[in-house]
Amino acid sequence: MKKKLALLIILVLCVSLALAGCGGGSKKSGDAAKDTKGVTTIKVGHVLAPDHPYTLGLKKFAEIVDKKTGGKVKVNVFHSSQLGNERDMIEALQLGTQQMALVSTAPLAGFTKQFLVFDLPFIFSDYKGAYKVLDGEIGQGVLKTLEAQGIIGLTYWENGFRHVTNSKRPIQKPGDLDGLKIRLMENPIHMDTFKAMGALPMPMAFGELFTALQQKTVDAQENPVPIIWTSRFYEVQKYCSLTGHFYAAAPLLVSKKFFDGLPADQQKAIREAAVEARDYERQLLAQQNKDLIDKLKEKKMELLEVDKGPFKEAVKKVWAQYEPTIGKDLIQKVVDAQK
Ligand code: EAX
């Protein structure tokens, strides 16, 4: 009997010691991503296809980080909403349960309103103008506002100028959008912009979009050419009007909880890699924007050049509507910086 009791006490002690080991006290989030060999693993997620420049750029980022840290920091890339939709991932960064994410600016407006300025229709004249604003003090200042939300914005990658596709009819002027059910990102400016042109906005996460188009739950969507190609929207959308109504920047984000837990040399390596891989990702997109128009036509998509003047006129009131929220100064700064 005594033997059994002694065995039971030893068993209980072993189990409680093992559980205490799992608890491990409060680990810094950076440590949590570190394995027993001192290698830190970063999970970075995005919602686009495995062959989109988001994925290719992040793989280049992973290579550069690995090299700059001597293998001490590994980056695992998760595409196609494997880690959730963009809002889910931004929230996971705030909690420190995910280390990095690559998203469009649109959902970030729900976290800091300064991002709204970048989603004003036709605010960017061209790629050069966008880069001057985003890579300069204005863009860096807006990224800084994320830190109060527990997120560090490393730099702006690119999604691109967005165009309207639909399954119903050629869109050549704003009135052609009348009554069209269009999927939009969850961003108030995007909704008000398309409402101003008579469309019916349907906010929806990107991961649900292809099925919604296939089942005709929505008639239309808007995205840059590289997404229309890599997400195979040409299979479910007949018409593409090259409106270029929004320019979507794509901030590369890191959890502040995680990043602050890293040694300074690894933080420096990650910041440098983010900028080097950004330039690579932008170049990939520029090449795709050249090559994919013809490939979409080969897939029997009808691509239409449009006169942007009437579209700009139709949505001008959105600028005035959001001036009190964004601030006249910030809007003017973005316009002036492109002159
Ligand atoms: O950031 O949701 C969209 O249409 C975006 O282009 C996508 O999330 C990539």
Task: Provide a compact summary of the structure.
The protein has two domains: 38-159 and 248-293, D-Maltodextrin-Binding Protein, domain 2, CATH 3.40.190.170; 163-246 and 296-337, Bacterial extracellular solute-binding protein, family 7 (D-Maltodextrin-Binding Protein, domain 2, 3-Layer(aba) Sandwich), CATH 3.40.190.170. 46% of the residues lie in helices and 19% in strands.
Class of the largest domain in CATH?
Answer: Alpha Beta
In total, how many domains does the architecture comprise?
2
Counting DSSP H or I runs of 4 or more residues, the number of helices is 13
CATH fold field value of the largest domain: D-Maltodextrin-Binding Protein, domain 2
Percent helix, as a range, is 40-55%
CATH architecture of the largest domain: 3-Layer(aba) Sandwich
Strand portion: 15-25%
H/E element string? Answer: HHEHEHEHHEEHEHEHEHHEHH
Profile the largest sheet. Answer: 7 strands, mixed
Q: Distance N terminus to C terminus?
A: 90 Å
Overall shape: globular
Rg value: 23 Å
Mean pLDDT, as a whole number? 93
Q: Unreliable stretches, pLDDT < 50, 5 or more residues?
A: 18-27
Number of strands: 9
Q: What ligands does this structure carry?
A: (2R,3R)-2,3,4-trihydroxybutanoic acid
**Helical/strand content category:** alpha/beta
